[in-house]
Amino acid sequence: MIRFKVLNRDPDSQARTGILKTPHYEVATPNFMAVATQASVKAISPAELKRIGVQIIVANTYHLMLRPTSKLIKKLGGLHKFMNWDRAILTDSGGFQAYSLSQLIKTNDEGIRFSSHLDGSKHFLSPELAVEIQNDLGSDIAMVLDFFTSYPAQFLDARIAVERTVNWAKRSLNVKKKVPYSA
Length: 183
Description:
The chain is of the alpha/beta class. 35% of the residues lie in helices and 25% in strands. Strands 4-5-6-10 form a four-stranded parallel beta sheet. A three-stranded antiparallel beta sheet has the order 1-2-3, with no helix packed on it. A three-stranded antiparallel beta sheet has the order 7-8-9. β8 and β9 form a beta hairpin. The protein is globular.
């Protein structure tokens, strides 16, 4: 279970600092997250990340579902063990990749159909599958599958993106309530 404790508040704004307690580590907020897109922060070891004070890493659902796959990572003991990282991990949902690889995707209210940027193989990512993948990975913080538009956006396009994301979040929550945490 994740808990957040406010430590300081700015009396002139809504700014605050706090501690985010995750299953693997207590993360001071605000915080810088090192990026481990494919379960590795490039050119720096986990020991060095700890030495410089990194408390949380962000990994990518889209890339990990393609390779090595969430099922393999789960079989090997989860993303923390796979990465040799005993601190917090946040996994994003894959929504940004859908946006950045827009020439390879088709999105509707059910989810995102895409061709892999690696080999062209066909895949489907739904809000429910995004939850399942992140649960298999054993992430401390899992993001819901989101859909967004480029800037500037037409009002209708932005509204569709927000409504789709809200609906996907509701579907994700329904699945998460039924699936026990696996980390």
